[in-house]
Amino acid sequence: MSEQYYHTRDSVDEYIKMAEGYNGRKLIEKFRKFIPAQSSMLELGSGPGSDFDILKDDYELTGSDMSSEFLLHLRRRFSNGEFLELDAATLQTDRMFDTIYSNKVLHHLTDTDLKNSIQKQHDLLNSKGLVCHSFWRGDGSEYFKGLFVNYHETAELNKLFKVLYDVLLVDLYMEFEPDDSILLIARKKT
Predict the structure, then answer these.
(1) Among 46, 87, 88, which Cα is nearest to 63's?
(2) Containing domain of residue 111, as a range?
(3) Contact call for residues 75 and 83 (beta carbons, < 8 A)
(4) Is 3 inside a domain boundary?
(5) Mean pLDDT for the stretch of residues 154-158
(6) pLDDT tens, 19-57?
(7) How many structural domains compose the chain?
(8) Is residue 140 a part of any domain in this protein?
(9) Average pLDDT score over residue span 111-129
């Protein structure tokens, strides 16, 4: 596995060009029905900032990434934005949020790391806080450009989240091919 992808300027520039024109606007529109404006929100894996740019006007938004190169890019692009250096598996912060959002970020976690992340997100959420995450749909895992990609199915995600959350929505949607992606929205159990 290439540990350097997302951590070098060249790979970050390559990813920004590859992701140009893609954002989570359709996911965010579905999500807005569940979360009131001005809620505090943590975005995991802000990357190029496409979704951060959409979310920043409606929420008290904190972006994050584990890549210092992406964080440099984000801080240049959004000089008034707040960004944390966070690993989505461990989420080492003492901040609390109403919502945690990610768009195709948690698929880089192993099954064990995803379970840990789900627990840590629960710990970082205020009472009745929400999570909204998208995943690549499928079975197994692979390496893409040296990065680990873990695919999931709706039943598996329901099982992982339902221990600590009430699952409000699980929808299949199309990123590149019909039903290649999953949107999950869930509320923290109290």
Answers:
(1) 46
(2) 9-188
(3) yes
(4) no
(5) 97
(6) 787 889 999 999 999 999 999 999 999 999 999 999 999
(7) 1
(8) yes
(9) 97
The values of phi and psi at residue 152, to 5°, are -140, 160
- Residue 131: count other Cβ atoms within 10 Å of its Cβ: 29
Find tokens 């070098």 and name the residue.
8
Q: Could you tell me the CATH number of the domain that includes residue 83?
A: 3.40.50.150
Bridge partner residues of 166 (DSSP): 187
Task: Measure the CA–CA gap between 150 and 102, rounded to whole angstroms.
Answer: 15
The contacts of residue 148 (CB under 8 Å, 6+ apart) are 1, 108, 110, 141
Which strands, in side-by-side order, build the sheet including 82-85?
82-85, 60-65, 40-44, 97-103, 125-136, 181-188, 165-173
What does pTM read for this prediction? Answer: 0.92
How far, CA to CA in Å, does 55 sit from each of 46, 81, 154, 180? 11, 11, 25, 24
- Whether residue 63 is contained in a domain is answered as yes
The residue with greater pLDDT, 144 or 76, is 76
Residue 48 falls within a domain, yes or no? Answer: yes
